[in-house]
Amino acid sequence: MIPENSTSAADHRPMIGVSLKLHFGLARTRDWLAEVAALDDALAALPRPVDLFVLPSFPALADARELLSGTGIAFGAQDVHWAESGAWTGEVSAGMLAEAGARYVEVGHAERRRYFGETDETVTAKTRAATHAGLVPVICAGERRAEDLDAAVDETLTQVRAALSGAVPDSEVVIAYEPVWAIGARAPAPARHVRAVAGAIRGCLRDHDVRGRLIYGGTAGPGTYGALAGAVDGLFLGRLAHDTEGLRKVLGEISGTAGEEISGSAGG
């Protein structure tokens, strides 16, 4: 019997997310967004549907809204503040992002934790703000060091549970499992490792009243999804997607194996 709060096969529709971080200037971002928008016909022609979202820098959100309008491609932001208003110099609220047309917002990335001192409490508050505003938080979680599997699961689930404790009931969330030691590495984390941690995250999602999907990031690229199909719902891409032909290739790969992924997720 499937628990009432578990997600259905439809909730595990394959997904690709792309964060540009701070790699591009505004003009280059606009050019890249135009290239991504041109992928819409190819996206619509895939044998199985795949959701695609992109996360440019804050100043490019208006460009994303303009250039992606009329396509099936969503956009969002790379960060959000936990307060809706007030004396928070330099910050951007979830409500403002929603007004700007954003659908997704990234929270809890390892770089935010390392360089800006964000904690589980910070991520909880940002998840709460995002879901209250109707945004879909892309909650980044993952262990810092390549440790044994039990330690990886414990560290990752601590982060996931904290974030989900802030989510509005029945809200949509995306968990981006990103082992920190695999970010920017030569190869993604081993498939066996990812599958084990992903299974634990799935169980955590079932324990919370949310509609969740799970994607993998950390040197993800061609071949990554094929090794993980059935364990994750998609990929969170970085520099590979700077070349939109690389993005096109991964879209096709995910679409081609999506039936196996959906049936595996529904039965797990």
Automatic annotation (TrEMBL):
<dbReference type="InterPro" id="IPR035990">
    <property type="entry name" value="TIM_sf"/>
</dbReference>
<keyword id="KW-0312">Gluconeogenesis</keyword>
<keyword id="KW-0413">Isomerase</keyword>
<comment type="pathway">
    <text>Carbohydrate biosynthesis; gluconeogenesis.</text>
</comment>
<dbReference type="GO" id="GO:0016853">
    <property type="term" value="F:isomerase activity"/>
</dbReference>
<protein>
    <recommendedName>
        <fullName>Triosephosphate isomerase</fullName>
        <ecNumber>5.3.1.1</ecNumber>
    </recommendedName>
</protein>
<keyword id="KW-0963">Cytoplasm</keyword>
<keyword id="KW-0324">Glycolysis</keyword>
<dbReference type="InterPro" id="IPR000652">
    <property type="entry name" value="Triosephosphate_isomerase"/>
</dbReference>
<comment type="pathway">
    <text>Carbohydrate degradation; glycolysis; D-glyceraldehyde 3-phosphate from glycerone phosphate: step 1/1.</text>
</comment>
<comment type="subunit">
    <text>Homodimer.</text>
</comment>
<dbReference type="Pfam" id="PF00121">
    <property type="entry name" value="TIM"/>
</dbReference>
<dbReference type="InterPro" id="IPR013785">
    <property type="entry name" value="Aldolase_TIM"/>
</dbReference>
<comment type="similarity">
    <text>Belongs to the triosephosphate isomerase family.</text>
</comment>
